[in-house]
């Protein structure tokens, strides 16, 4: 064969290869027009959510753009995540219907398709990532351990930890740094001690020891492979063939060892007082249901996975919002002093109306998650605004854009403004938003967050202690907008939150 022929054949092969790749990337892009569902034109490589891959900005901004363009014309639109068609719901009532009335059609979270307990036992047994009957069972095992009475019984421990937090802040004031106090570091220490002590029955003092049990190895807890997620984006079938671990083997071994020590100490009964904490409940359940130690570990890990980041992040962002709005901070301080004084009554703290409103409002602006991804588990017909119908097929992912709904000026006038008053009972309370599918900070229906009361109690106790002793201001190192960190899957202010405390 002459060299010219070799070159020609090579060029032809390369052109054919590129042609095939092009066809492969595009072949199902007419999916939504075939079903007459509106939607934005996808990018050939990344579909409609390019930021999920490029991380140039947080992916919620891609979702938000689509929401803003179509919210007046459609109840739902069809989009592509990479090349996979997904349905995005834009109508709040329809979103609520999916969560509550039509729950049996949307039983599982997308997370359950990514995790396998054989590969990742601790995450695989978390209710959030569990599916079907296993979800029901895991959830029903945790819920009775988190009754208001049990949370109340753990409250003295919470108050002790709050006192240690205030000593830490006093230390920060005595030895000030130019960049102030790193709020997330502060609230992570707080939550590390809350979970260690209230949930696992382990003594720890994270305010003095940055190597306390739940802070050590934290940066080695998760593993994430961007390459794997790009490949899965292009070929979702890979998920079925190979599941990744989310929790590293190193962390799993460490955590299981920690829990086994805690269980052995508790079973040996060497502690002076009987503690009515979550471990106490878990050990009773272990006997009753013959749970393995690994299953008990998985339940405790649920607090670390679903409770640690959420609560520490909400507390840090609420402090930020109070720092940005000093008049609201003062109004809240006044409520605390008027209704509590030096008293630390659980019932009163739990019911403080303005405190409740401030947390809900901060959570609306900085929610823990921005959007839900539910799997259609039983096909269902949905009717769009123009009367056309679409039968959602089994296995399709349905996106609920919670954050764009909660930042929509039509539902929340001046949505970017921190206005806790909108959630006060005199103005209709949180229920009026919740019932209309406008408040999404802890889900809804049978999968509503099971730890939110526990979480709120910790946040309230911490805010009461901090605000009675200190004024809080934003340090100049903190940005003054709402830009989210694009590299993080939960809501987090880009660049971090730095605060200046001042003793009252
Ligand atoms: C106040 C703080 C918290 C907030 C705002 C919060 C928020 C959420 C949200 C948005 C979801 C997803 C609901 C959905 O859309 O399907 C969720 C689920 C969940 N949360 Fe929380 N969470 C908080 C604290 C906690 C804590 C302390 C725990 C500890 C056990 C926890 C455990 C869970 C679990 C297990 C699920 C999955 C429930 C299921 O699928 O059945 N959360 N949470």
Automatic annotation (TrEMBL):
GO terms for cellular component: endoplasmic reticulum membrane. Heme binds at residue 449. It comes from the Eukaryota. May be involved in the metabolism of insect hormones and in the breakdown of synthetic insecticides. One of its GO terms (molecular function) is monooxygenase activity. This is Cytochrome P450. It is found in: Endoplasmic reticulum membrane; Microsome membrane. It comes from Stomoxys calcitrans. Keywords: Endoplasmic reticulum, Heme, Iron, Membrane, Metal-binding, Microsome, Monooxygenase, Oxidoreductase, Transmembrane, Transmembrane helix. It is a peripheral membrane protein. The chain crosses the membrane at residues 6-25. Signal peptide: none annotated. Belongs to the cytochrome P450 family. Its cofactor is heme. The keyword Translocase does not apply. Pfam families: p450. InterPro entries: Cyt_P450, Cyt_P450_E_grp-IV, Cyt_P450_sf, Insect_CytP450_Detox.
